[in-house]
Specification:
This protein has about 180 residues and is mainly α. It has seven helices and three strands. The chain is globular, with a radius of gyration of 15 Å. Strands 1-3-2 form a three-stranded mixed sheet. About 60% of the residues lie in helices and about 10% in strands. The chain has one domain: Collagenase (Catalytic Domain).
Length: about 180
């Protein structure tokens, strides 16, 4: 929910969201004992593969070879500059020529666990949909993302968030902020 991160939304827990939040909390707790992010990295990787498999099954698509980069803020900014990705508020992007999906984990980790998990899933699914449907316009991808995330997590994304996200994606300057 990063595009509208200056607003607060109440998240309803479905079974999958609750399961992922529990796993994420356990990962963070374990990582706090070691000052490493091994468990959180494993968790985010598992979520990525679940999202990929969900899209593969739901839309009967094949992906190009993909690589995922889970970044801190500095790494993410370096990748944005390197690949000329615009949009200062973005927390994830896809570089089609490389099959690269980059996610700014540090930026979304600043929120509570449910918001982090929801944003992680939103980011992964949106970028995977971009990889699957490169000719779709941003509003089409947003609508597919919201519907897919809701189905996957068993959670209703707040309507206000979806409306703002969709309206932003329709602006000619979307992604150029």
């Amino acid at each position: 929910m990063s595009e509208t991160s200056n607003q607060s939304y109440e998240i309803q827990f479905g079974p999958k969201l609750a399961e992922l939040c529990k796993k994420c909390s356990e990962s963070i707790t374990e990582d706090a004992k070691t000052d490493l992010l091994a468990n959180l990295n494993k968790f985010t990787e598992e979520v990525f593969f679940e999202c990929r498999d969900r899209i593969r099954t739901e839309f009967s698509v094949k992906f190009p070879p993909l690589q995922i980069k889970r970044c801190n803020a500095t790494q993410f900014e370096e990748l944005r500059r390197l690949y000329s990705v615009t949009g200062a508020s973005t927390t994830a992007f896809f570089v089609p020529a490389l099959g690269l999906i980059a996610v700014n984990v540090e930026a979304i980790l600043k929120w509570n666990v449910p918001t982090f998990v929801l944003n992680l899933v939103l980011g992964f699914i949106e970028e995977l949909l971009h990889a699957s449907f490169p000719r779709y316009a941003e509003p089409e991808i947003k609508n597919l993302t919201h519907a897919t995330v809701e189905k996957y997590l068993g959670t209703q994304i707040p309507e206000n968030y979806k409306n703002i996200s969709l309206q932003e994606s329709k602006k000619p300057t979307y992604g150029q902020d």
